[in-house]
Amino acid sequence: MRNGQTTGSLTLSPPGPGSFTCPSGQTRFLQSVKYEDTFVVDEGGTTGHATPDPIAVTLHIPV
Question: What is the pTM of this model?
Answer without folding.
Answer: 0.59
